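tool_log.txt
---
The assistant was asked to compare two proteins side by side. It first ran the structure predictor on the initial sequence, then on the second. Raw inputs and outputs are pasted verbatim so the downstream comparison step can read them without reformatting.
(1)
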Amino acid sequence: MRLALLPIFLALAAPAAAGDFIVHERDVDDLKAVVASVEPVKQLIARARIGGTVVSLSVKEGDTVANGQEIARIVDPKFAIQLQAMDQRINAQQAQRDKAKLDFDRAQELLRRGVTTQAMYDQANAGLISADRQLQAMRSDRNVIVQQSSEGAVLAPGAGRVMSVPVSLGRVLMPGETVATIAEDKYVLRLSLPERHAQFMRAGDTVLLGARGAGAGAGDMKPGRVRLVYPEIQGGRVVADVDVPDLGNYFVGERARVYVSTGKRRTFIVPAQAVHLRAGVNFVTLKDGAEVVVQPGESGPDGVEILSGLKDGDVIETP
């Protein structure tokens, strides 16, 4: 199916007099109807960072999530046991540190009185420093275990709509397994065209999106802009993404009619009000009052395409 659409920046020819229009042949975009699918700009995957059992799952397919929102929680019971063991080791090391502090204080006091040697004082000081360092290391090891257990919270990597949740409560996961797939809020139309059209596709080009539904007409179409033409041709087809406002109410993967330019051709465009229908036949009225039978084509924002019946330079009347 082919349509003709004039670029918005083309102005109509200047009329010779009020109500008259001079017909001139001009270049128009030759549009072809293709099928595109609605796709997210990016698909985000929320993965498990630790292994364990899924104890909570707060989303399902179709839910909308915010960036950083907790969507699931994974628990590994080994972390609780490791924390208990580490707490006991810290308590034991704390007791050793307290004893080392008492030995140091005693050696410092004896050295002040002159009843001990400098070597004994240095030994007590080294014992206190060693006990302090070991206590700090154990506390750092405990913080590592706490951090690992906190990574059981699976967070949404971005805002969007949940497409799939391939896990369930009670399931055991390994690190890196997918918990949910999220489509970003921003959607685009993804075109896949034969490679012979690659030479006509450029970033910034305007395309038309057909309205949803079988009964939608040409007047229901809305414009979009090509945001990216992928530089690789696969299977003899070129892929391009198109930005169109208000695609958020479409389903991901929904197919839509899109009209893209496949080149230029020359034709006549006249104002729509200059064409009148009588007895099933379309006429235009020339400046001298003669009526000419014409064959109209598709309508566009600048008027109606005339396939036959007029020649370059004709002056027609526009009511």
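(2)
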Amino acid sequence: MNRLLLIPVIVLFLAACGSKKNNKANIDPNDTLSTSLSLINEQIKNDPDNPNLLYERSKLYFSQKFLDKALEDINRAISLDSSRAPFYLHQSDVFYATNKIGEAKKAIEKSLQLDPKSKDANAKMGELQYYLKDYVAAFKYLDAALRIDPYYAKVYFIKGLCFKENGDTNLAISSFRTCVEQDPDYFHAYMQLGNIMAEKNNRLAIDYYSNAIRVNGSMIEAYYGLGYFYQEHGDPEKAIKTYESLLQIDPHNGPTKHNIGYIYLFKFEDPGKSIPHFTDALNDDPRLVNAWYHRGIAYEKLGKKELALKDYKNAIDLAPEFDMAKERYSKLGGK
């Protein structure tokens, strides 16, 4: 069965550092966004050419994904004061979020020209080079960031990604472990370690996935990884329990329901109990080829030939090269 792990999307780019000048917006972190925005709008109304206020409002807009407004404000802030490295670093975030990669790179370069010893700018350039798959350049900037701050967790994480994509699993593991040593709540590093250990059939995967759940119990990929590891390594009861925890967060997760059915069908040899789980999975996502195929096997084991034929045919229609489904369909007399 194909591994159906939901791979977490890597959050690229670090938050830009704060302004060093005075006269920033007096935003209370405990206020709601609307209150903060109202406050800073009033300040800008009274002082429309204050670049610091425009910078702060741009960050507020960016945090809420109002990207056009964020870009408008940071561009105006830079036009009023082009000497501020953090402005360009934030601008790179906005460019990156709007898929303007070349413009993002130029903005980071400008930030580095103004402040070559900025750990955040070096880290961000290293991360962008990783995205561009220029690993030599990535390591150059990432190592520069670590010379400035040897405890920078995210830099170790990005280095781990670089090592992993270059096939050096041992150095990737070392980097991800260093990341969580610096920041014991680094979710994505635990996930990377869990995935690597799972591929190695190493039971340390359980610890890493469990730590990922500890750090952020709302991320379903951690439950899926842990449940799948239990499923494939002789702990079907624990797998089902973990999958059930996932379904409390995402009640319509078809692949998870399919996997529970798979356990009942093949691990517990109970085709009757597997069928409702496959059916629930298909109700959530009728494109789940394996759910059609495995429900067909369950029907076949129960002697329900016509229902099995129908499910095998649905699997074949979705995946015409699905040889195992075609073979079972043919043996049952399907045409």
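---
observation on (2): The chain is about 70% helix and 0% strand. Residues 33-46 form the longest helix (14 residues).
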